[in-house]
Amino acid sequence: MTSTRAGLSIFCTIFVVVVWLNQRGITFGAVSDWFTSIREAALHEQAILKSWKPETSFESRLKPEDHAYHEPRTFVEDWVVREELRAPDGVQKPVLTVNGQFPGPTIELRSGDTLNLRVTNELPEETTAIHFHGIRLVGANSMDGTPGLTQCPITRGSHFWYNFTISEEQSGTFWWHSHSATQRADGLYGAFVVHKPSSSPKPPSINSHISDELKRKSHPIARRVDSLQASENPVEHILLIGDWYHDTATAMMKWYRSKTSHGYEPTPDIALFNGVNTFDCQRPIKKRICNSKNGERRFIRLDHEMPNRLRLVNTGMLADIEISIDNHLLVVIEADGTEVKPQKFRSVTVSPGQRYSVILEPLRRVRAGDSFTLRAAMSPEDFQVPNVELDLEQTAIVYYGSSPMRLKSPSAHNQASIAELPFSPEILSPLIPVVVPEPDVTYTLFVNSMRKDRLGGIPYGYVNQTSWKPDPWNPLILADAENIAKDEIRQDQLVVTTDRRDVKVVELIINNIDEGPHPFHLHGHHFWPLYTHRSTWGWGSYNTSSPPSLDHLSNSPPVLRDTYTIARRGYAIIRFRADAPGLWLFHCHVLVHLGTG
């Protein structure tokens, strides 16, 4: 009798559910699809979590406690550059390593430290040189690592010593990379972090004021992180992220410098997170050695008892990358080594060469074992050539605690609540405002890529109709040392000089008359981006008869940067102090543009 009643109850429940679904136009097929999608999502989550293993190929966690609480010291490093067959995402290719590591070693120093670095070249054929991106080398121009400008390249079997001291005023997120040919795209790069000296005599313990404050609020990150407080002593992590190509950089450059490319940049195949990812070998790809099992999904371990700072670096050749983490806000506290007023965003877009530091702010309570998807979306506007191998959104996993146990899905409510927080570098403000000085001299530049019939239809990059082609074995620093006049430098090389004593502040108006964006980097200096124009139609070049107003600078000074993107068909006005004597390169960080002038 009891079983009969139970069966009748179940039948009635099913009947009521069926009537309710039919009234709303929901069919059994839709319900079945819903259950199938839930099952597939669960299987996908299990597969992701099963692929977890502790970080061995690259240590993303930094150690500020080993540097920020010490007096300035001298560090001696010995690097050997080699070429090795690797499969960072499961696809095999020659990769450039340093001491067997890819990415190369992370340099961690504090302001005022001295670095003595010996780089030995054991590459099969190529020369090399190392540039320290964003580092101010006042009085050490010859250490800038630019072949043809500040040094001769390091030949096979030889070595070069880079010796310099970090300024007491400089700290932040930087990186190092090869400045020889296209080697950066084959893996010759790494992180360079300069920690700000602490006023405290020793590292904060678990009983520090921040921990006490967090404990007082019942759970370490149950609340939204107070960004100003959290940025003082967070747990720090580095994320090197950039597009990656399965062809060698030499092959890509050869294709780009041919009529076949029509001047279009090669489209990447995937993005790497700290040197790894997993490529789907089922995709239609060229004939390559590919085994997805040899790839590695990147898991980044976060501290579940302390705030977390993620230092982002775009190491790629071409693509802007929009970075977000499900159910988190990203609180920007640094841009290119400049501290900024904390500002919350749903995502942060990083151009090649740029860096940002963000404090991760969970939008809901997190526990040890909680895992979230980190998304890296590449902009389709950067690509002119279709590539069926590329998935525009690449993913990694961040997790709290010792191991990932639960992969949290993005909450529709949380996503909607942060949709009104679009990222824009122009709205960032420096933590310590400064008065932008008036310029002593202004130069106007026009940049573009062109194919000329008289040059065989091969694309070249131009600045004011000049295409830079340095002589690596006769670097200009030698000419400068011999007091060779500017007039004696080849006239097809654009050289902006500030040799007059009354020139202390330089303004550049950079017109991008190209169909794609150009992320420009200035060696040895930081600059103020004063104004950026993005044209919605036609050509948005600077109009000398109707210049834009810069009145906003008095109330909202810009953030000092060393890498900044000039939009397609737009322009930017930047200004910098010419306070570092020497020869410094100003170039687009898209590698094929740099390699063609």
From TrEMBL:
Superkingdom classification of source: Eukaryota
Residues annotated as signal peptide: 1-29
Residue ranges that the Swiss-Prot or TrEMBL entry lists as coiled coil: none
Gene3D superfamilies associated with the record: Cupredoxins - blue copper proteins
Molecular function in Gene Ontology: copper ion binding; oxidoreductase activity
Sorted UniProt keywords: Copper, Disulfide bond, Glycoprotein, Metal-binding, Oxidoreductase, Signal
One protein family per Pfam: Cu-oxidase
Every Plastocyanin-like domain range: 86-198, 237-377, 489-597
Family per record: Belongs to the multicopper oxidase family.
UniProt xrefs under PANTHER family: ADR239WP, MULTI-COPPER OXIDASE
Name of the protein in question: Multicopper oxidase
Species per Swiss-Prot/TrEMBL record: Sistotremastrum niveocremeum HHB9708
